[in-house]
Amino acid sequence: MKGIKGVGKRSGPGRVAATMAGLVLACGSLLGSVVVQMDLEGLVAGADTIVQGRAEAVYSQWDSERRVIYTYISIGVDEVLKGESRRSLLIKQLGGSVGSLVMTVSGMPGFDVGAGVIVFLEDSGNGTFQIVGLNQGKYVIAEDSAISNVTGVDLLNPKTGLLSGASVVNKVPLEEFKNKIRELVR
């Protein structure tokens, strides 16, 4: 049986690349959100601002065209670990609920009013910030520890190329964690 010219006749690197691209596209729709796994060094390097503070307010609203819901989180800053000194800042992230309509985004961190956090942030340039690495960039402060709970995403290990769909919980003594951040900022 003869093949059609240019179809199914690839060999070598071109065929491998085409096969890999097809697998990534097929798997991406099955797996949901795929995020590059970030270690602490990557979070610090990717952040313009790192703060310890408390979620003072959390609210959601439509964008100006009423197409997308955004959630806004006001953070009262207790300590700046990287970036400009400030008393508060506003995080804007995709997703939330308005009335009975809920828009969810896998891997987007949730915030509880009053909860202590350390957040790794990127300045959006419009007066708001975004969390670096989705929920990898938010640590909850509890019992003198910083706790990261990465769920809802598949993590792509940049060193091995392997995907991990398991939840990752990381608990570190708070002062040790902040000292490590300060060392990396220098």
Description:
It is a single chain. It is built from 3 helices and 13 strands; from the N terminus they run αβαββββββββββββα. The strands form 3 sheets. Strands 2, 3, 4, 7, 8, 9, 10 and 13 form an 8-stranded antiparallel sheet that branches. The chain has a 3-stranded mixed sheet with strand order 1-11-12, with no helix packed on it. A two-stranded antiparallel ribbon has the order 5-6. With 186 residues, the chain is of the alpha+beta class. It has a single domain, classed as Beta Barrel (OB fold (Dihydrolipoamide Acetyltransferase, E2P)).
Task: Please describe the topology of this protein.
Blueprint: H1 13-31, E1 34-36, H2 40-46, E2 49-62, E3 69-82, E4 88-94, E5 96-98, E6 101-103, E7 116-123, E8 129-131, E9 138-142, E10 145-150, E11 154-156, E12 163-164, E13 168-173, H3 174-185
Parallel strand pairs: 1-11
Antiparallel strand pairs: 2-3, 2-7, 3-4, 5-6, 7-8, 7-9, 9-10, 10-13, 11-12
In short:
The protein is of the alpha+beta class and 186 residues long.
